[in-house]
Specification:
The protein is an alpha/beta fold. Helix 3 packs parallel to helix 5.
Length: about 210
């Protein structure tokens, strides 16, 4: 439900959040008005109920990721416009960016339109891009580095968190001068279990 948005942020005693998995609307921004900073997702994940004939129980929910360049631009323009009425909206975030660059065959010239859309109504907005540690190769990001203002770096498998120092250095080499926000999973989707506490502590203690 949209009315749960921001509750996790408050539970952790935090004042900044990324808004994902829901439409970017004035209703949502009203819910988050008391946050100091909100960054809105533009590569949208949407839920759809999928019926499986013969399977008992409720319909399954399938997550669909719309990473088309047209959708990114449209969402970026919406967020840019919303930021004029909600000054705590400071940026946009593009989830699973490199995956969609590959599957949608997005070129740097095409992606430049997204960066322009982010700032279409508010030139102060920052554009964040999700980068995974297993994507840290220079060739993957050739032509795209200048189109991101902030990099949010994620380690998909918790067993690899012991290499976090190295990943951050690699990220700095690929995106020189860009702020790096290190993401933190509470759940390891490769294990279908929570991230072990000692690895969470290692990640949270990283400076």
């Amino acid at each position: 439900s949209i009315f749960g948005a921001g509750e996790g942020t408050k539970w952790f005693g935090l004042r900044r959040c990324c808004f994902m998995f829901h439409p970017n609307t004035a209703l949502a921004m009203e819910k988050l008005r008391d946050m100091e900073e909100v960054v809105c997702e533009i590569s949208k994940w949407e839920c759809a109920h999928v019926e499986f004939p013969g399977r008992k129980g409720a319909p399954a929910v399938q997550h669909r990721h719309d990473g088309r360049i047209e959708r990114k631009c449209r969402e970026a323009e919406i967020v840019s416009q919303l930021s004029l009425d909600y000054p705590n909206v400071t940026g946009t975030i593009d989830d699973d960016l490199y995956g969609k660059i590959k599957t949608e065959h997005i070129t740097p010239d095409q992606y430049a339109a997204v960066h322009r859309a982010v700032r279409s109504a508010n030139p102060k907005l920052k554009h964040w891009g999700v980068v995974y540690s297993h994507e840290l190769e220079q060739d993957n990001w050739a032509g795209f580095t200048d189109l991101l203002d902030v990099v949010t770096l994620w380690v998909w498998a918790s067993k690899d968190l012991v290499n976090l120092d190295r990943y951050v250095e690699q990220c700095r080499e690929i995106f020189p001068g860009k702020p790096i926000n290190v993401g933190c999973y509470l759940r390891d989707y490769t294990l279908r279990a929570g991230v072990p506490m000692e690895l969470l502590k290692h990640q949270w203690g990283f400076v």
